[in-house]
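We give its fold:
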Amino acid sequence: MKEYSREEISRLILDKIASEKEALNANFDKSKNNIGYFIIDDLLPIEIAAKCFENFPKKADMRHLKSLREDKFVSAQMDKHATILEDVLYAFQDKTIVKVIGEICEIKSLSADESLYAGGISLMTKGNFLHPHLDNSHDSERNQWRILNLLYYVTPNWETENGGNLEIWPNGPKKDPTEIQSKFNRLVVMETHGQSWHSVNMVNVEKSRCCISNYYFSDKPVRDEDQFHVTTFRGRPSNSILDLILKADSEARMLIRKIFKKGVRKNPHIYEKDKK
């Protein structure tokens, strides 16, 4: 296949977004009173998306996050992986792309996160899941608000019945979610604020659901009433006992952050570019 530079990939993304900008803005506008989001299918030429999947690292080369809250594999240390993954990931950080996505979502002063704080790549396979949660409200230094979550899916032939699909909970974690298929070559952009509950349902098949993710930040929150919070997990409506456990866990971690503003340890999920 043709070799694409990072700049060429950015241009392809920008052209696709620009060609659908009016419709994307209308879709976002319909959902913004709860959790604003929009979806772009067939984002990049198929050969680029397929190459991302073909070069995705194995589970053994990623960090395994496993607890009552979640079970998935992640990495932000992009220089350990194939160049195509880093190029596609950072293509989304092109200033023109950040600007046009901000215009679609009617959000000003957006900036991308070069350090990939909680961004990067993730892999989920059979039995993996991510319970309903709110993303941490800020960056690692608590200087900026986390505003948008960009999720780009690269697993070919991913079907809804496979599980591993994004769920958003517009009426909170005690109501029913909206399921968004982790479809090949699909980009989902969603707001992150104090009510943007989302999750990933359990993967049911022996396949890897692979995702490239970015966060955008801003000096101001999406909603005026938003306050600082740690990543906050809840159980599904069908599991009240787990819900109580995860609620208590989140409250305890929030109490710690009131005492230690930046936490008791450095979050390891950051791209250290000089690390070998």
Summary: The first strand starts at residue 37 and ends at 40. DSSP finds six helices and 13 strands in the chain. The two ends are 29 Å apart (CA to CA). The chain has a mean pLDDT of 94.
